[in-house]
Amino acid sequence: MCHVIVTCRSMLWTLLSIVTAFGELIAFMSTDWLVGFPRTPDAVFGPHGATAAGEAYRPTLGIYGRCIKLPHLKRGILCGPYAIHFGEIASGFWQATSIFLAAGILLLCAVAFISVFTMCFQSIMKKSIFNVCGLLQGIAGLFLILGLMLYPAGWGSDKVQLYCGPDAAPYRAGLCSMGWAFYTAMGGTVLTFICAVFSAQAEIATSSDKVQEEIEEGKSLICLL
């Protein structure tokens, strides 16, 4: 018989797992990792910065995408991938970053999907599904940390220098500033480890004595605060 068990701690863990996976995925796909120096579509970078007539804007550069304003476009800033193939990503460090972030996000998305069904299934192959998911989230967090540590090492690439000036170097962003996607990825990494730790609380909540008493009474829907 399937028992639907809902507790505050298990639901909170499920919601955090989904939000974390979604946030990391959005950050990875975003072009707002680096925000370039102000320029115009015809800007020329000189010793004193970008110089050109017209309205200035700040281009953005992601791991595999970018947003720029082209002179012949009147509809605004054009966003899209600059790398069509994996080998076209700006640097080897960013390629490694892509691999680690993609692996971490894949695990987070798998856990987020599984977490929805933990209300009905609390174990798999006699192992607590919460503990298994917590372990996967911990591994995903390690992948995300590796990716974020390698990401600034690619700032010395030619692609980054086009956006951040010739002073850009590994772990030095030059004239660029960090975009919201980078901070979102960092926040998502912190939440990933919080979810990994909190999974143990979700396990405790769904296997407590109160839950067992409700099951023995024959209830199929169990809701506890």
UniProtKB/TrEMBL annotation:
Pfam families from the UniProt entry: L_HMGIC_fpl (PF10242)
UniProt GO cellular component terms: membrane
Lipid bilayer topology: Multi-pass membrane protein
Transmembrane domains' residue ranges: 12-31, 93-117, 129-151, 180-200
Primary localization: membrane
Gene3D superfamilies for the chain: 1.20.140.150
Annotated localization: Membrane
Annotated InterPro entries: LHFPL (IPR019372)
Keywords: Fertilization, Membrane, Transmembrane, Transmembrane helix
Gene Ontology annotations of biological process type: single fertilization
PANTHER family attached to this UniProt entry: LHFPL TETRASPAN SUBFAMILY MEMBER 2 PROTEIN, LIPOMA HMGIC FUSION PARTNER-LIKE PROTEIN
UniProt similarity note: Belongs to the LHFP family.
Name assigned to this protein: LHFPL tetraspan subfamily member 2a protein
